[in-house]
Specification:
This protein has about 280 residues and is of the alpha/beta class. It contains ten helices and nine strands. Strands 3-2-1-4-5-7-6 form a seven-stranded mixed β-sheet, sandwiched between helices. It has a two-stranded antiparallel ribbon with strand order 8-9. A hairpin with an 8-residue loop joins strand 6 and strand 7. Helix 1 crosses helix 4, helix 3 packs antiparallel against helix 6 and helix 4 packs across helix 5. The protein is globular.
């Protein structure tokens, strides 16, 4: 029996007693087939339990309320929430970027993508899924319990606040997708990184002026822009120095004045501070 979409529930996840469990291997075969089609089958060697864990997560996700995902069919859900994140991880590896050892964080994790499938590929790497919404974090805690992924921690806190706590400068890898506009997403993500850590932000295609703004923001935050292979759609950065303690700013400040406006080039190309 394939993964089934269900009608909207009152709660972000179904009762464990009502939750259909993936006892039929068709669920896992569907995921394996998608991985093979995307040339990602090798991830099973990293974690042989990966298809089963992903099948449970997707069942729970398709049974959740629509503020966790608008996708209600298994095929599109696999492509968007499994293949897209794992293909992004594959692009980092193919670009010869040395993914540093150490913990990973997903900022604004929501339904768990991209952080959950990426974390499940490397069960030896501890991971934190960060989100401010109680519905999302409650859903994620139930998923982690169901799939027995003790290496994954869930934290409910606003990212712009969490980045000024014990989580700052702690992570070797930071990922984020659709949590904020590109410049705000970078301002939220980079402070979590260790020196030498890598950030991967799913942004979609960016026009040349947007890429220029991203480059200025990345430099202001203490990182370097790291291009990867086509197609674009993921901004990858490497942190090279400590981020100014003022960042990230409050959400209101980020919305009122994008980071690129705080570090703009003057005529000779040096950085001019503006208040």
């Amino acid at each position: 029996m394939p993964l089934q979409s269900v009608t909207q529930l009152r709660y972000p996840y179904p009762s464990p007693l009502l939750m259909p469990r993936p006892t039929d291997e068709t669920d896992e075969r569907q995921i394996r087939a998608a991985l093979e089609l995307a040339n990602l089958s090798y991830v099973e060697a990293l974690n042989p339990d990966l298809p089963r864990q992903l099948a449970i997560w997707l069942r729970m996700l398709l049974a959740s309320v629509r503020n966790l995902t608008a996708i209600r069919e298994p095929g599109p859900a696999i492509r968007k929430h499994v293949i897209e994140p794992l293909a992004g991880r594959d692009r980092l590896i193919n670009a010869d970027l040395p993914l540093p050892h150490g913990p990973m964080i997903d900022i604004g994790s929501g339904n768990g993508a991209p952080g959950l499938p990426v974390a499940l590929c490397e069960p030896q790497r501890s991971a934190t899924l960060l989100d401010s919404r109680s519905a999302a974090t409650e859903f994620l805690r139930n998923v982690v319990t169901e799939i027995d992924a003790a290496q994954i921690q869930i934290r409910q806190e606003r990212a712009e606040i969490a980045a000024h706590t014990d989580l700052r400068s702690r992570f070797a890898l930071a990922v984020s997708r659709a949590a904020a506009p590109p410049l705000s997403a970078l301002e939220l993500a980079i402070p979590f990184l260790q020196i030498g850590g890598i950030g991967a932000i799913w942004t979609g295609e960016l026009a040349e002026p947007q890429l220029d703004a991203v480059a200025r923001a990345v430099a202001e935050l203490g990182a370097e822009f790291t291009p990867i292979d086509q197609p674009q759609g993921i901004v990858v950065v490497t942190k090279v120095r400590a981020t100014n303690p003022r960042y990230p700013r409050s959400w209101q400040q980020m919305r009122r004045r994008p980071l690129s406006e705080l570090a703009r080039a003057d005529d000779d190309g040096s950085w001019l501070r503006v208040s």
